[in-house]
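Box S1 | Example of a co-folding query
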Amino acid sequence: MVRAADGLRVKLVAPTSQAAALFHGRLFEIAPAVKPLLRGDMTEQGCKLMATLGVVVKSLGNLEAVLPAASALAKRHVDHGVKAADYPPVGAALLWTLEQGFSITMSEPLVIVGNGMAAACLCEELAQRALGRYAIAVIGEEPRLAYNRVLLSSVLAGEVRASDISLKPAAWWSDRGITLCYGVGVTAADIAARTVTLSDDKALPFAKLVFATGSRPICLRIAGADLPGVLTFRDMSHVASMSRAACRSAPIVVIGGGLLGIEAAYGLAKAGASVTLVHLVDRLMERQLDARAALLLKRAVEAKGIRVLLDVATRDSSAMVTSRV
Ligand SMILES: Cc1cc2nc3c(=O)[nH]c(=O)nc-3n(C[C@H](O)[C@H](O)[C@H](O)COP(=O)(O)OP(=O)(O)OC[C@H]3O[C@@H](n4cnc5c(N)ncnc54)[C@H](O)[C@@H]3O)c2cc1C
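Box S1 (continued) | Returned holo structure for flavin-adenine dinucleotide
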């Protein structure tokens, strides 16, 4: 299956892709110089290679059957600039992949719920330590590749582009045989039946299940908190809404003078909005800073054109109807 989201093509890979991912992982490990020769969609290349290898293995002792497949493969290699000297590591990686044959067919389905920073880190570790051990599927609610969430503030402030904060390119996932499914959430997990249900009603089996779902922002239980235009700051879609709000001339109130609140206020002010930062406690970032440091920070924030109100509880946001964060 091929999904299109954000202009990216993401493949749900066939079992042969796992063998291909194993092969490429091993090959690049023992012969990193070969990597630049292999361009384009590695999953497709890998599947073709494994299909050829399948013909070779089935036809051992029958040269006539092997030759057409082997010469077609050799021609593709020449087209890619592969030289005779590149073959020994390719052969070694193929042999190693064959030796791993059992683990390929026995790969346990591992489903990771959440396509955030923790999921990416886990996949990286697994690819390094146990490539092919699991048939990994990563399911992410957000309709995009995993990105560095910490940099959302920089995106809001216009210092970094949204497209620059992806943790890994699409090819990184497919090269490792990882099934990426984003823009779809996991709605239920049946531990007895070992399946998860997705928001598009599909079911996915698992042997191991990892929840890497991060956290959700706290929403204040105050009147008006559910009005359109009252936003939270957690993901890329929030940044897009906040940037749109900053473009309007209506004043913006940011509730919370911790790190995220200050970063949000800064980004919005930088985008040209008139921003008031409201904080419950009598000093900013009270968990991290003493009174003196907090005062210096307040002055620095005010110097950016942000109004700071301390020791103020928010009771009702329904009066702030046009543009709020
Ligand atoms: C603006 C901002 C700035 C930050 N700055 C810092 C910083 O400077 N330093 C720091 O240490 N931390 C910072 N953090 C916190 C840091 O980003 C998080 O700790 C980190 O992202 C957690 O990683 P995670 O993979 O556990 O969760 P996340 O990165 O939140 O990823 C979880 C993913 O799971 C998805 N998901 C949830 N439920 C489901 C479901 N049912 N099905 C499918 N997918 C699901 C979510 O949509 C999300 O994409 C910041 C956070 C924000 C928002």
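The longest strand covers residues 134-140. Residues 42-58 form the longest helix (17 residues).
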